[in-house]
Write a structure and sequence with these properties.
The longest helix has 17 residues. This protein has 307 residues and is an alpha/beta fold. It is globular. The strands form two sheets. Strands 2-1-3-4-5-11 form a six-stranded mixed beta sheet, sandwiched between helices. The chain has a five-stranded parallel beta sheet with strand order 8-7-6-9-10, sandwiched between helices. It folds into two domains: 150 residues, no CATH class; 131 residues, Rossmann fold (3-Layer(aba) Sandwich). It contains ten helices and eleven strands. Helices cover 31% and strands 16% of the residues.
């Protein structure tokens, strides 16, 4: 199998290095990995590997390359930030999300049909999570997890409008305290949202901003009744901390263990069994060693239907 490694899809050296590590694994398995500058020709390769998501309206070269790969290749491999054990301060992740034709729960081929049912035990051990954490049954606050405005995972949704409308819908259904947690990256539009949210009682917007005012997730989880998210990766953090999540977009990586409507927020908050989700989500990310030794590629190849 001939695999194009789209090195220019990565706009940082640390990301380029991840692509090169993945290329090593392709070669270990016995396939051919070719590092390509610019856009690979779909006539010359069986598939292409790129780093990161893209935004349709962005014209930067790495965005354009990824858009063209998605258009030209029937199946491509996408590397992204991890979903378990991720950190907001660093970019040199030891695990990477790896899927076919996407990076969100509902649009990606993750290879669940041929997964190792025990892989999750090692992945969660490596990332420091207790798989036996119980669901929280107490807590007062409904925490709204905002996202980086314009992020590809929002799929065109305006996060400020989403937040306002979500608060409005929650307040129709309950008088519980609402905590709005902004995304930590600097953002335009937060001041306008803050002004609009003044109409709602019993609502707090917490301070959470990089680099000097980052608020630990644990602060908002400790008295959380539930969290409400669109496709925020923090939904995964919440579920792993035992905090019920209401996911309002099917791309949410915690979709399988979340409720999907605000209607019964006072009565139904969580899915009882998380084991199947843990088994599946552990196959959405792979560590650097697995990139280099071909274990990741052997799994991904099956979703490419080339075995």
């Amino acid at each position: 199998m001939k695999v194009a490694i789209a090195i220019d899809s990565a706009h940082r050296d640390v990301y380029s290095n991840k692509l090169l590590e993945f290329a090593k694994g392709v070669e270990v398995v016995g396939d051919q990995a070719v590092v390509v500058k610019g856009v690979p020709d779909a006539e010359d390769f069986d598939t292409a590997v790129m780093y990161g998501s893209w935004k349709e309206w962005r014209g930067a070269p790495h965005h354009t390359i990824k858009k063209q790969i998605a258009q030209n290749f029937k199946k491509y491999v996408q590397l992204e930030t991890p979903v378990i054990g991720r950190g907001v301060r660093g970019i040199n992740h030891q695990y990477l999300r790896v899927g076919v034709n996407g990076f969100l729960w509902d649009t990606t081929e993750w290879g669940f049909e041929h997964m190792d049912p025990n892989r999750y035990l090692q992945v969660f051990k490596d990332t420091g999570y207790d798989i036996n954490t119980e669901w929280k049954v107490d807590g007062e606050n409904i925490v709204i997890m905002m996202q980086n405005p314009g992020d590809a995972s929002l799929r065109g949704t305006d996060i400020f409008e989403w937040c306002y409308n979500t608060v409005k819908e929650i307040r129709i259904r309950t008088t519980r305290p609402i905590i709005v947690r902004p995304h930590p990256l600097p953002r335009k539009g937060m001041d306008a949202l803050t002004s609009r949210l003044l109409e709602f009682e019993n609502l707090t917007i917490v301070e959470n901003e990089l680099p000097d005012n980052l608020r630990p997730l644990e602060e908002d989880f400790k008295d959380a009744y539930c969290v409400v998210s669109f496709s925020s990766g923090s939904a995964v953090d919440a579920v792993l901390a035992g905090v019920p999540n209401i996911a309002l977009d099917s791309g949410n990586m915690a979709w399988l263990v979340s409720k999907h409507s605000l209607d019964n927020i006072e009565y139904e908050r969580y899915i009882s069994d998380r084991k199947e989700w843990m088994q599946k989500i552990s196959h959405c990310q792979w560590n650097v060693e697995e990139l280099e030794n071909g274990e990741c590629w052997k799994h991904i190849k099956r979703s490419l239907q080339i075995i």
